[in-house]
Design goal:
Elements (H helix, E strand, L loop, with lengths): L8 E11 L5 E11 L3 E5 L6 H9 L6 E6 L16 E4 L11 H10 L5 H14 L15 H13 L5 E5 L7 H18 L2 E6 L2 H7 L2 E6 L4 E7 L8 H4 L2 H21 L2
Parallel strand pairs: 3-7, 3-8, 5-6, 6-7
Antiparallel strand pairs: 1-2, 1-4, 8-9
Helix pairs in contact: 2-3, 2-4, 3-4, 6-8
This protein binds adenosine-5'-triphosphate (ATP) and magnesium ion.
Length: 266
């Protein structure tokens, strides 16, 4: 299915643009269908509108023109409350409450919808289990490594069992080994729980490893210049990461991206 097909989409964007009050055209004419169980990466240079596009999908920023439609029929983009529980958002910084234990950080999205601590306990425990942190429910964020904090942030995003997980450069600040481990664990969680992902990254290697679709973007104005499918089976592991097919995909995506960078020079 290409990005412009109109069938079986969880959320679809049609010719969506975003102009900020200061006149910056952050995103121009973006069309995209996010299908059930897609793993989509937004890849592109700084300022090409990746975060803006993600925030539009999340309803955190209003679209200036175009249409966004959820499969439930709820029109989003105007901060429609109806869609809130259908998505989870993970930022580059884990953004945990330092004064609250891991359990309470993960409980937060449920607490905000009126679920008591006791009632939430089983699902909070499940979410911590998903990210491998069952034993850390009672510790404070300061006692955790950067990778573990990011795991808590992922558990918090998944505790409402959203259909769509939005991730904005979630592993950019982590060391290489931790990033690889989190990539693998994220793929395992995604395969088991079958939600869809939009993953923002600067890394060609990370996007090829994770995604079934890569949306390549260019800046000034922010726009989509290419969509590349990575038709490789899951699970993907070290055998895939070290394969010639993986390298070939990385080369093709790099070439597309260099086209994007070239555009910026003109
Ligand atoms: N709130 C805002 N007001 C005005 N301009 C903005 C705002 N947010 C983003 N922009 C501009 O919109 C463009 C796209 O920004 P955006 O943050 O979406 O890019 P990005 O692809 O996420 O970049 P990065 O890789 O650096 O995170 C940039 O030119 C940016 O300066
Ligand atoms: Mg960004």
């Amino acid at each position: 299915m290409s990005s412009t097909d109109s069938t079986a989409a969880l959320v679809s964007l049609r010719n969506v643009s975003k102009r900020f009050a200061n006149g910056t055209l952050a995103l121009q004419g973006m069309s995209l269908n996010v299908g059930e169980h897609d793993f989509i990466s937004f890849l592109g240079p700084s300022g090409c509108g990746k975060s803006t596009a993600l925030r539009l999908v999340a309803g955190l920023t209003r679209i200036s023109s175009g249409e966004m439609q959820w499969s439930t029929g709820a029109a989003a983009g105007q901060g429609a409350g109806k869609i809130d529980r259908d998505l989870g958002f993970v930022f580059q910084e884990p953004t945990l409450m330092p004064w609250a234990k891991v359990f309470d950080n993960v409980w937060l999205p449920l607490k905000l919808t009126g679920v008591s601590r006791d009632a939430a306990a089983p699902v909070v425990k499940q979410a911590l289990e998903m990210v491998g942190l069952s034993r850390f429910a009672d510790v404070y964020p300061r006692e955790l490594s950067g990778g573990m904090k990011m795991r808590v942030s992922i558990a918090r995003a998944l505790v409402t069992r959203p259909r769509l997980l939005l991730m904005d450069e979630p592993f950019a600040a982590l060391d290489e080994m931790t990033r690889i481990k989190l990539n693998n664990d994220l793929l395992a969680i995604w395969r088991e729980h079958r939600f869809s992902v939009i993953f923002v990254t600067h890394s060609v290697y990370e996007s090829v490893y994770l995604s079934n679709r890569i949306v390549v973007m260019a800046a000034r104005p922010g726009r989509v210049i290419d969509e590349i499918r990575i038709d490789e089976p899951y699970p993907r592991g070290e055998a895939f990461r070290t394969s010639s097919r993986y390298n070939a995909h990385c080369q093709a995506v790099s070439q597309s991206l260099h086209g994007a960078l070239h555009d910026v020079d003109h």
